[in-house]
TrEMBL record:
This is Protein kinase domain-containing protein. The gene is 110677987. Gene3D superfamilies: Transferase(Phosphotransferase) domain 1. PROSITE patterns: PROTEIN_KINASE_DOM, PROTEIN_KINASE_ST. One of its GO terms (cellular component) is cytoplasm. Its cofactor is Mg(2+). GO terms for molecular function: ATP binding; magnesium ion binding; tau-protein kinase activity. InterPro entries: Kinase-like_dom_sf, Prot_kinase_dom, Ser/Thr_kinase_AS. Pfam families: Pkinase. It comes from Aedes aegypti.
Length: 323
């Protein structure tokens, strides 16, 4: 099976060129070749819509290697395509900061538990980001369908998430939007982290660690330092979100179910979360201990990713990651 290359040349400039709103408007007028023709010439065919967000639409797609010939016998590669239309975005931060940052990071990373980038193509004002398809959907849909996971399944998937985060943090990249919707499940029932729209590097040009100010992602998964509006350490914030994900897998509910932000912070700081009695009866003390270490409201004493993978709950884990 062929894999699609990351497109260059007409596909996307290197490095990614930031487009001003005036330049985007001028480009709209110049567009003459339909996107479908541009994509087809590179082997891509778009399908039905999977999801729609604030800044992008995700559709199914297929890739046929143009070099393999047109005998009709080629097995296509099933993909998902994130389509960003710059001409329709009114958010300058997204156009000037988040989108270029996402594309730069996507081209740097490769890990068995991170969704695999297949290609990036620019056509006029639209950017098409092609990724491997996660056939079993996302973790939120899975839990809504099947309920809380058995502890052993939670352990396997959590280990995969943690290993992916360790990989990112070693590259000084923080995800900053870890949530069930961004945890995808492959056909072989392995975890694939996705959506790096809020991801950023954690060091500056001099190699010094930087703090973040942006309120990223969903409040329900955000650490108390983010919800309270303080500058925060992005890696530590990722660990809190991992704790929320683990709690959800084990318990089938959110640890802090409060939409009012001031009340949410109070609950977080007071550690007001609890497992359902029927869950607490059957899960191990080591699993509960892991959740408590991750949902530590003090970011200075919160467990880091290296310590997570050395916890007793995970110490005997042997996971064979498969694409």
């Amino acid at each position: 099976m062929s894999t699609a290359p990351v497109a260059h040349g007409e596909g996307i400039a290197q490095p990614f060129r930031r487009s001003s709103r005036l330049a985007i408007q001028q480009q709209v007028k110049k567009e003459q070749i339909p996107d479908a023709e541009v994509l087809k010439s590179r082997g891509y065919l778009l399908g039905r819509r999977i999801a729609k967000g604030t800044f992008a639409t995700v559709v199914r797609a297929k890739y046929y290697d143009p070099k393999a010939g047109g005998d009709g016998l080629q097995t296509p590669l099933d993909l998902a395509c994130k389509i960003v239309d710059e001409s329709k975005s009114k958010n300058e931060d997204f156009l000037e900061k988040f989108l270029p940052r996402e594309l730069k990071i996507l081209k740097r990373i490769k890990h068995p538990n991170i969704i695999q980038l297949q290609g990036i193509i620019r056509s006029g004002c639209r950017v098409f980001i092609f990724m491997r398809l996660a056939e079993r959907g996302d973790l939120l849909s899975f839990i809504r369908k099947y309920g809380a996971l058995p502890e052993e399944q939670s352990r396997i998937w959590f280990h995969q998430m943690a290993d992916a985060i360790r990989y990112l943090h070693r590259l000084n990249i923080a995800h900053r939007d870890l949530k069930c919707e961004n945890v995808l499940i492959s056909e072989s029932m392995n975890i694939k982290l996705s959506d790096f729209g809020f991801a950023r590097t954690c060091i500056d040009e001099t190699g010094m660690a930087v703090m973040s100010q942006t309120f990223c992602g969903s409040a329900a998964y955000a650490a108390p330092e983010i919800v309270s509006g303080k500058a925060y350490t992005p890696k530590a914030a990722d660990l809190w979100s991992l704790g929320v994900l683990l709690f959800i897998m084990l318990n089938g509910t959110m640890p802090f179910d409060e939409k009012h932000l001031k009340k949410l912070v109070k609950m977080q700081l007071a550690k007001q979360f609890a497992f359902r009695p029927e869950v607490e009866k059957v899960i191990s003390l080591d699993a509960i201990r892991m959740v408590r270490h991750l949902l530590e409201p003090d970011s200075n004493t919160r467990i880091n990713i290296g310590e997570v993978l050395q916890e007793r709950w995970l110490e005997k884990m042997v996971v064979a990651n498969k694409n």
